[in-house]
Design a protein that fits this description.
By secondary structure, the chain is α/β, with parallel strands linked by helices. It is built from 8 helices and 10 strands. The strands form 2 sheets. The protein has a 7-stranded parallel sheet with strand order 6-5-4-9-7-10-8, with helices on both faces. Strands 1-3-2 form a 3-stranded antiparallel sheet. The radius of gyration is 19 Å and the shape is elongated. The protein starts with a helix and ends with a helix.
Amino acid sequence: MQNWHALLQQRETSTHFIVEGQIPVSRLKESYYHIEKELTIGQDLTRAEASTLLGFHFHRGHLAIARKPENPPLSAFKKGTLVILPEIADPGNLGTIIRNTAALGGSGVLLGKGASPYNAKAIRASAGNLFRLPVRQSLDLLADLQELRKTHTLIGTSLSPNSLPLQTLPKIKSPALLLGPEDFGLTSEIESLCHHLTHLPMSNSVDSLNVASASAIVLHHLST
């Protein structure tokens, strides 16, 4: 393994990432991910040393350095709703969506541009559920969407005139839910690939929800 002190300082490289906290480390150990080093505060290094290496005050008791797995193929997404995030910037939102997907029976997450699922904030927000379902980082999202159209029903969240209120969507087999960035939503090119467009009706002039909150509502609807 590379110098683990250097890996802690970098926090994420092209091959490795850091997991912080007892619950995420425990779920990492239960998964198929390869752990290169597990560290316990007070045994392997002091809290002050961990804080210095990580660059912030580290108050948790456990750390682990893990190797990134191979990118899963599209065939890894089986039963349940596949969540597709073409461009999500905030790692906290990404981690929460991963957690929601696992909690509500989703088959996995497909990512385009944006935050890394191996960002420490994303892993914390996922409560370690990153290690419980496939997460694919797409090299060509449009090509992946074209392929998924053969096996899934693509549902895009949108405020376009063609968008249906969520509760009016028909019962859908093998759904794939596309959630766009909060600032500009899905692109017109991606919307054109969707079989259905939907939205959550809002009241009191509120035009949108946080994308992670919206994911939980739509995932629950699609799973019932």
